[in-house]
């Protein structure tokens, strides 16, 4: 089960990783994640290049997320957008975090 802290995540323990937290969640081209990333001083996935296929793009996203997990970085989760279709990217991100039991550093900021 994810740890929920309402709209304000607990302070990042800088000694934990020394790096900014990551922000995951569904965006669907709304700009929602960019606004939240600015609010929480978090990093969002922004690939330098786009892969040839959707599955390769998702894998690049998961590689980025797994690197952050290995660094012990905090992951802020904005959740899905109510009323929007499910996101393959967001489902892959949460599936990875579930698979590696990353609950201690996975914080919900969804309203």
Secondary-structure blueprint:
Blueprint: E1 3-4, H1 14-17, E2 22-24, H2 32-40, H3 54-70, E3 75-77, H4 88-99, E4 106-108
Parallel strand pairs: 1-4, 2-3, 3-4
Helix pairs in contact: 3-4
Helix/strand class = alpha/beta
Mean pLDDT equals: 84
- What is the CATH C-level name? Alpha Beta
Number of domains: 1
Q: How many angstroms does the end-to-end distance come to?
A: 17 Å
Per DSSP E runs of 2 or more residues, the count of β-strands stands at 4
Radius of gyration: 13 Å
Biggest sheet features = 4 strands, parallel
Shape verdict: globular
- Fraction in helix: 25-40%
What does this structure look like?
With 111 residues, this protein is an alpha/beta fold. The chain is built from 4 helices and 4 strands, in the order βαβααβαβ. Helices cover 38% and strands 10% of the residues. Strands 1-4-3-2 form a 4-stranded parallel β-sheet, sandwiched between helices. Strand 3 (75-77), helix 4 (88-99) and strand 4 (106-108) form a beta-alpha-beta unit. The protein is globular. It starts with a strand and ends with a strand.
Précis, in short:
This protein has four helices and four strands; from the N terminus they run E-H-E-H-H-E-H-E.
List keywords for this structure.
4 strands; alpha/beta; Rossmann fold; globular
